[in-house]
Structure formats: structure tokens, C-alpha cells
Design a protein that fits this description.
There is one protein chain. The chain is mainly α and 155 residues long. It has one domain. The chain is built from 6 helices and no strands. The mean pLDDT is 92.
Length: 155
């Protein structure tokens, strides 16, 4: 349990740090960027700790979770959703795997380097897919709501 909380807190601090780096001025938005990153890290760590979810699926579920929260926060705070998504995404980016891949390239192990490259690209693709699924679903949801209001107004 302690590892889960440490991972989530680390993701919170990383997202908060990138919020500062991206010059988010409002302290309230900055705090929520950190919390959103912590939520993504918490979902990832819970999935990994359950040992029933692969690392790939854990990344996808974490991306879905922080994107859902980012959509809600963006609407409540009247702010761009990308500011919340980017800060929460950074802690999940597979930079360590890419570093390991470069070490394998330097040590002249092309097979292991290729395996790590494919793992890195898979994780990055699943993070993007998680964001895309939520963004498309949200756009569809609000489009249906607008059409329903328009239809109700005309009848």
C-alpha cells in the first residue's frame, strides 16, 4: 500500500512541477494539475499492484482516468483541457524505458533495444489512445446534449 501512495505522490509532484514549468499562473489550477497527475499515478499504481492488469493496460486506464478528470476540471475552471492533460501525462511517459533502450543500443544489443523500443512506442500509443477515447466520447456526449436541447426547443 505504501508503494502505491508513494507512486501517486510522486506523480502529483511531477505534474505540479511541470505545471510550474508550463507557467500555469493560477495557484488553484496549478494545484488541480498536480492532483490530476496524482490521480493518473494512483490509477496506474493500483492497476500494477493488483497484478491482474498488464503495464500496457495500466497506462491506458490511467490515461482514461486523468483525461476524464481533466475534462471536468477544464469545464469547471473555464480553462483549456490541454493544460490539465499535459501536466498529468508527463509522469506516465515511458522515459525510463527509452533510456534503457538507448543503453542497449550503446552496448550493442540490437534485439533487446528493439524490444524496448516497441514497448516504449506501445505505451506512448496507449496513452494517446486513452486520451483520444475520452476526448471523442466527451465531444459526442456534448453534441448529443446540444442536439437534444435544440430538438426540445423546436417541439
Amino acid at each position: 500500500m505504501q508503494d502505491i501512495l508513494v507512486g501517486a505522490f510522486g506523480a502529483f509532484l511531477a505534474a505540479l512541477g511541470f505545471g510550474v514549468l508550463f507557467n500555469i499562473q493560477d495557484r488553484k489550477k496549478l494545484l488541480w494539475c498536480g492532483i490530476n497527475g496524482g490521480i493518473g499515478g494512483l490509477v496506474y499504481e493500483l492497476c500494477i499492484a493488483s497484478r491482474q492488469v498488464s503495464e500496457m493496460n495500466a497506462n491506458f486506464l490511467a490515461a482514461v482516468a486523468f483525461t476524464l478528470v481533466a475534462e471536468v476540471l477544464a469545464r469547471k475552471m473555464k480553462s483549456p483541457v490541454t493544460s490539465f492533460i499535459v501536466c498529468a501525462l508527463i509522469p506516465l511517459v515511458p522515459g525510463g524505458t527509452m533510456y534503457d533502450m538507448m543503453i542497449e543500443v550503446i552496448t550493442n544489443d540490437p534485439y533487446e533495444a528493439l524490444v524496448l523500443l516497441l514497448k516504449t512506442l506501445s505505451i506512448a500509443g496507449l496513452l494517446a489512445l486513452g486520451i483520444l477515447v475520452v476526448e471523442a466520447g466527451t465531444a459526442l456526449f456534448y453534441r448529443i446534449i446540444r442536439k437534444g436541447k435544440k430538438y426540445a426547443k423546436n417541439n
